[in-house]
Specification:
Residues 86-237 form the Ribosomal RNA small subunit methyltransferase E methyltransferase domain. Helices cover 30% and strands 25% of the residues. The protein has 249 residues and is α/β, with parallel strands linked by helices. Strands 6, 7, 8, 9, 10, 11 and 12 form a 7-stranded parallel sheet that branches. It has a 5-stranded mixed sheet with strand order 1-3-4-5-2. It starts with 5 loop residues before the first strand and ends with a helix.
């Protein structure tokens, strides 16, 4: 089943998945299988969500924007991705979409767009970003799709941030070089905050440094694009989470 197409089944739109259950496909899903992938009845697919896990299935019928699949068996039990939350200032369209795609592939549990003093993009197509997160989850073989929350001011995020979780703040032009050992014990639920194009203002940096739960994170001496900084920071945090899992802490 490794090479079979993967389809996310929204648990809010479908009942719990069971063996031999027939599922009617949404029009866009049927169109994708039939017109994009050129599949037909009898082909194998994989469906998944965080509630039901991953299931093998076969196409029963497929025509234009209509189709049905029959579930066979569970291949993987439900498992939520234990990754960090990503807080980021909205960027230009392509860059924001790249952040969502790469963040999903790197295990982000949820995305929270935040408005900062230098944020120059204030309108987001949340439906489009949700579709990108879904497609990335299908491609990278995770079992869930990360949440994308409505944008809010950075001050609101800080005011309501859980005091028992850490928020790693990526700042540019730090003297310390990027060091994976700088976050040896990143925990599920910790967050990463990435600033806008142009970085955080001096006032914002002072404000962030003064919070008891924030940790300054250096990504090296070079100034990175905001979308590159998100990927680099998430890679470091992912390494910390994996070390923590291996050590059993």
């Amino acid at each position: 089943m490794r090479d079979s197409p993967r389809l996310f089944m929204d648990p809010q739109a479908y009942p719990p998945l069971q063996p031999d259950m027939v599922v009617r496909l949404e029009p866009d899903r049927a169109h994708y299988l039939g017109n994009v992938l050129r599949l037909s009845a009898g082909a194998r697919v994989v469906v998944f969500n965080a509630r039901d896990g991953e299931w093998s299935a076969g196409i029963e019928a497929l025509r234009r924007d209509r189709g049905e699949i029959r579930l066979t068996r569970m291949e993987r039990a439900p498992q939520a991705t234990a990754g960090p939350a990503l807080f980021f200032a909205p960027l230009k369209r392509d860059a924001t979409e790249m952040v969502i795609r790469m963040g999903t592939e790197l295990g982000v549990s949820c995305f929270q767009p935040v408005f900062t003093e230098r944020t120059n993009t204030h309108r987001l197509n949340e439906a489009r970003l949700g579709a990108i997160a879904r497609e990335a989850s299908e491609q990278c073989e995770r079992l869930d799709v990360p949440d994308i929350r409505p944008p809010c001011p950075m001050a609101d995020v800080i005011a309501h941030y859980p005091s028992d979780m850490r928020l790693f703040v990526a700042l540019e032009r730090l003297d310390a070089a990027a060091d994976p050992d700088g976050i040896p014990a990143a925990r599920p639920g910790d967050g990463l905050l990435i600033g806008p194009e142009g970085g955080f203002s001096a006032r914002e940096q002072e404000f962030l440094r003064g919070q008891p739960f924030t940790r300054v994170l250096s990504l090296g001496p070079l100034v990175l694009r905001a979308d590159t900084a998100a990927a680099a920071g998430l890679a470091l945090m992912g390494a910390g989470l994996r070390r923590r899992a291996v050590s059993g802490l």
